[in-house]
Write a structure and sequence with these properties.
This protein is an alpha/beta fold and 486 residues long. The protein is built from twelve helices and 23 strands. The two termini are 24 Å apart.
């Protein structure tokens, strides 16, 4: 970046912090189309329209970001594609990474809404029904509408389900898809200080409840904010902390931070799985006077009394084992009640039952695949990607952006009678919002080491990544990934 661009950039960011705002045009100008394109293109494999004459009926289960991007890339690559997408959700699709920004009052809810059908590739058949029965030995899937779909190759990109039902006191009896009907959850979440950015309406209600919380603190009342992280895998492991950072920032903006205690209650024993990012987050929490208590899993809520109940768990040294010549480890736990004025709930998240309990599922629910080729461990004509795939890395859009290219390349290899050779390197990215105006861009892979796309210290909070998060990633996703080209 030359001196002129740097000067323009500083003027724009100064305007933002003075409340004058930044237009999307100016922000994209500042970030630079070259920088955005570089990030989009990192790791992209070649893809030319109609480059393969391979034939076969392809069924994609799931029409979210991962499924539609895969359909688009296959359409671009196959000369005569025969693709069907099975997706029951007939509602407006949500750009889910933006829900954090809605929850923090940066975006309005309508900024994360887009119509899925607008991104359906030409020639792809969309069936608005649910897969209810998988028979991979006979290459068939039965749908909720009674159809039996025959396929030659299947790609499972069905996402996951939010399981608020695992938390007592919410009155929720079953798990729900992250893109489906959340009316039952909205009767509880979004009232009495309870919030969750994990569904579209919940993100808007999070901002409403946060504003009430801030108003209480501004009035002089001492208030408590609680933020949870469950004992399951979740979409975007950084999101529970992002909304906490934004709450802190909004309180400071209102001049009321000293009246609020903010505490993070994760089930695990780390802030982040990568040591460098863990250390950076701990330092950021300490600098902001944000507290944390590890090994706490939310199990119950009393919305009227505003009390959260956590299962606090730990391990103790037991008796000496003479045969193993070591002490036994004894798990311990107890219930802990925590009062709150505002609580952001990150719900437990699970695979859909019809997948988990099927031959293509596993004991843990997720679809078991080779973590590099993303090919099913038992059925070579089946692949999986995105949140539903059993790979040991983050369930993020950044992961899916790398995975769908690998799936397409390897599926076409299989269709052509070759061995799959494309490999997913475990890359994922978490643009960790740390304030109104800064983001730490946490990139990493199987090595569990930082793998930055740019020659900058990835543990540092930067306003340039805020611009990327707020202004560039959504169009990159919608016009890049969903076209199958980025």
């Amino acid at each position: 970046m030359d001196k002129k661009m740097m000067k323009e950039g500083m003027e724009l960011i100064d305007a933002h912090f003075k409340g004058e705002g930044i237009s999307r045009r100016d922000a994209l100008k500042l970030f630079g189309t070259g920088g955005a394109a570089a990030l989009m293109a990192t790791g992209t494999t070649g893809c030319t329209g109609g480059s393969s004459n391979a034939k076969g009926k392809i069924l994609i289960v799931g029409g979210g970001l991962a499924g539609m991007s895969t359909a688009a890339r296959l359409t671009n690559t196959l000369s005569n594609p025969d693709i069907t997408v099975l997706e029951p959700n007939d509602l407006s699709t949500s750009y889910q990474p933006g829900q954090t920004l809605v929850g923090g009052g940066v975006w309005a809810k309508d900024e994360v809404v887009y119509k899925r059908d607008d991104y359906l590739p030409n020639g792809v058949t969309l069936i608005k029904e649910k897969a209810v029965e998988f028979d991979p030995d006979n290459n068939t899937v039965k749908t909720s509408g009674g159809k039996t779909i025959k396929y030659d190759y299947m790609i499972i990109a069905a996402g996951l389900k939010l399981d608020f039902s695992k938390i007592e006191g919410l009155g929720i009896t079953e798990s729900i898809t992250s893109t489906g009907d959340h009316s039952a959850v909205s009767k509880i979440i979004g009232k009495n200080g309870l919030a969750s950015i994990y569904f579209q309406q919940g993100s808007e209600d999070t901002w409403k409840e946060m504003q009430k919380f801030i108003a209480e603190a501004k009035s002089g009342k001492k208030v408590k904010g609680v933020f949870t992280h469950p004992n399951t895998a979740i979409k975007c492991g950084g999101a529970p902390k992002k909304i906490m950072y934004l709450t802190d920032a909004r309180l400071r903006e209102a001049g009321a931070r000293e009246n609020a205690e903010l505490t993070f209650y994760p089930n695990g024993s780390k802030m982040f799985g990568v040591k460098e990012y863990h250390d950076a987050i701990v330092n950021q929490f300490e600098a902001r006077d944000m507290k944390w208590n590890y090994r706490h899993n939310l199990v119950a809520v009393d919305p009227e009394k505003k009390i959260a109940t956590f299962d606090r768990h730990w391990q103790e040294k037991g008796e000496w084992d003479e045969d193993l010549e070591e002490y036994t480890i004894v798990p311990r736990s107890k219930k802990v009640e925590v009062p709150y004025d505002f609580m952001h709930i990150t719900p437990p998240q699970v695979a859909a039952e019809e997948i988990a309990n099927s031959p293509v599922g596993s004991s843990k629910g997720w679809v078991p695949v080779n973590q590099e080729t993303l090919q099913h461990v038992k059925y070579p004509n089946v692949f999986a990607l995105g949140d539903i795939a059993a790979v040991p890395m983050g369930k993020t859009g950044g992961s899916a952006r790398k995975q769908y290219k690998v799936v397409v390349d390897n599926l076409i290899s299989v269709m052509e009678g070759k061995e799959p050779t494309a490999k997913y390197g475990g890359y994922t990215v978490c643009p960790l919002i740390t304030s109104l105006g800064t983001v730490m861009l946490a990139e990493f892979d199987w090595s569990k080491k930082p793998t930055p796309s740019f020659p900058l210290d990835p543990t540092q909070e930067r306003w340039i990544w805020w611009l990327l998060k707020v202004y560039a990633l959504k169009p990159m996703t919608q016009y890049g990934m969903l076209s199958g080209r980025a």
